[in-house]
Amino acid sequence: MNSSVSNKAPSIAVVIPSYKVRPHILGVIAKIGPEVDQIYVVDDCCPENSGDFVANNSTDPRVRIVRHTVNQGVGGAVMSGYAEAIANGADVIVKVDGDGQMDPSLLPQFVTPIVDGWADYTKGNRFYDLTHITRMPAMRLIGNAGLSILTKISTGYWTIFDPTNGYTAINARAAAHLPFDRISRRYFFETDMLFRLNTLRAVVVDIPMDAVYGDEKSNLKISKVLFEFTGKHAKNFAKRIFYNYFLRDMTAATFELIVGLILFIFGVCFGAVHWISAIASATPTPLGTIMLSALPVLIGLQFLLGFLNYDVANVPSRPISRFLPFNPARASLQLLPEDGARERAE
């Protein structure tokens, strides 16, 4: 992996959130290749004392333990790992789960697009090879497909899939500019990361990978979080539209959105009122009234489709990491108060 920007070999760090993964985590660490300089195991107030377990049983000199005194979820664990890696000079930070579902040998594939300067963030996609999808449990397959569609709409990354995939890599410069104190700390973390990356106009690339399922148990139940995620997606979608088309810039798409919504809502409301009135009075609706309702709806839909087409084509395409100023202290300052109380052990 040779960088096209610098001759200096990039410093690669791996962050492993650790919560109830004690049977698998040593195996994950053992498979991490020599291209990695730092490994951060984040004990997220694990009831199995996974931090102590790794400290006492791993002989890998690259391993550092970060302990949380309060459980903060996968997002909180990753943010703490990011802050440590950034403070210690990492150029690229890879996040790998400790349950053995993610093959560490794929790590160079995630890092190369970032090192070569054509991506700011990479993530796994288990749907790329259709022959391997059958390994995924049916409910998880359906749930991930539904969440992927919602994620495309809310984040603006229309070209990616499998949003709950936690195998990711990020340029440390881009990571340092993320609002650590605002990113979701629980299971919505991966999706919320994509939304925040879009506000930076970061380039995100999917990396094909196989779906691997063994005897590990997932703590994420898609049936339980689907409705919760839907509300959060709607909130992020509204914020993204406001940030990108009203606050940061105003384009022809802004005009299409405003006019399209006005015409569509007027047509629907006008038609509904007269339809209800016609039913109540048992009189037919005049043709002119029908046209006055239908035309705004049709024209409004055309404007909204034009906006959607612009939004799909507006996916970030120029990596921004090389243009961002690097301030390692910025990430640590944004961590939530309980992060400051975590204990560290080498």
Strand content: 5-15%
Radius of gyration: 24 Å
Principal-axis shape equals elongated
What is the name of the CATH topology of the largest domain?
Answer: Spore Coat Polysaccharide Biosynthesis Protein SpsA, Chain A
Estimated structural class: alpha/beta
Helix content: 40-55%
Number of strands: 8
Termini gap: 29 Å
The helix/strand order is: EHEHEHEHEHEHHEHHHHE
CATH superfamily of the largest domain: Spore Coat Polysaccharide Biosynthesis Protein SpsA, Chain A
Pick out the low-confidence regions.
1-6, 339-346
Specify the biggest β-sheet: 8 strands, mixed
Q: What's the arrangement of strands in the largest beta sheet?
A: 7-5-6-4-1-2-3-8
Mean pLDDT: 86
**Which CATH top level class of the largest domain fits?**
Alpha Beta
State the main characteristics.
48% helix; elongated; 11 helices; Spore Coat Polysaccharide Biosynthesis Protein SpsA, Chain A; alpha/beta; 8-stranded mixed β-sheet
What does this structure look like?
The model is unreliable at 1-6 and 339-346 (pLDDT under 50). The protein has helices spanning 22-30, 50-57, 73-87, 107-115, 138-155, 172-176, 189-200, 222-247, 252-281, 287-313, 328-334, and strands at residues 12-18, 38-43, 63-67, 92-95, 121-125, 168-171, 204-208, 344-345. It folds into two domains: 12-246 and 318-345, Spore Coat Polysaccharide Biosynthesis Protein SpsA, Chain A, CATH 3.90.550.10; 250-313. It has an eight-stranded mixed sheet with strand order 7-5-6-4-1-2-3-8, sandwiched between helices. The protein is an alpha/beta fold. It is built from eleven helices and eight strands. Helix 1 links the parallel strand 1 (12-18) and strand 2 (38-43).
